[in-house]
Amino acid sequence: MASSYGEDASKSALRERYLSAGASLSPRQRARFDVQVCRNLRAVPAYRSCPLLLAYVPFRDELDTTSIIRRAWDEGKDVALPRCVGGERSLEFVVVHALDGLVRGASGVLEPAEGAGEHIDPARLPKSVCLVPGLVFDSRGYRIGYGAGYYDNFLATYPGTKVGLARSLQVSGNPLPVDDHDVAVDVLVSDGAVWMCR
């Protein structure tokens, strides 16, 4: 996949390359990769023991997390989904019990409607796991997303375990460019492997 050195080292160039690579997968290929990512996630000790999962609903060609969310409910975990907080460019997670009733937020992402869901007691966050989307990750746990900064702003103060989810073609063999505000994940889970980044 794309190098992160030389002419294509800018985040915007890498973003475009990985967006087109993800779009080139067939629905069948996507489903096969996503099932394996789910299996590998269940092997992560922090995930197995967490009572609260901060998840996300997939956007565009992101990894399909709906089966992860449903399995977490089956395992007795609480699941919280993000809502964009525009003025702060951050996320607010609320506990939900179903995937119906989500609305399209200002960023185009499906999220719980304003007033829907239960606010999380901050004391629960250190034992939680946050699933982090991205277009591309490196082995250090850094990522390039869509560029809005919502996740980095939230993760800067998040005390739980940060888990990146990616298909193997979204893992760069070279370090990605990093800005001061970028926050790395602790664990990276792909269809091919699990990396402990921190």
UniProtKB/TrEMBL annotation:
Q: Which family does it belong to?
A: Belongs to the 5-formyltetrahydrofolate cyclo-ligase family.
Per UniProt, the enzyme's principal EC class comes to ligase
What the entry lists under InterPro entries is as follows:
FTHF_cligase (IPR002698), FTHF_cligase-like_sf (IPR024185), NagB/RpiA_transferase-like (IPR037171)
Q: What is this protein called?
A: 5-formyltetrahydrofolate cyclo-ligase
Cofactor(s) recorded in Swiss-Prot or TrEMBL? Mg(2+)
According to its UniProt entry, the protein's GO biological process terms are: folic acid-containing compound biosynthetic process; tetrahydrofolate interconversion
Q: Which reaction does it catalyse?
A: (6S)-5-formyl-5,6,7,8-tetrahydrofolate + ATP = (6R)-5,10-methenyltetrahydrofolate + ADP + phosphate
Residues that bind ATP: 11-15, 143-151
EC number from the UniProt entry: 6.3.3.2
Q: Which GO terms describe its molecular function?
A: 5-formyltetrahydrofolate cyclo-ligase activity; ATP binding; metal ion binding
UniProt entry keywords in alphabetical sequence: ATP-binding, Ligase, Magnesium, Metal-binding, Nucleotide-binding
- Gene3D superfamilies documented for this protein: NagB/RpiA/CoA transferase-like
Give residues annotated as binding substrate. 57, 62
Per the UniProt record, one Pfam family is 5-FTHF_cyc-lig
Q: Which SUPFAM superfamilies match?
A: NagB/RpiA/CoA transferase-like (SSF100950)
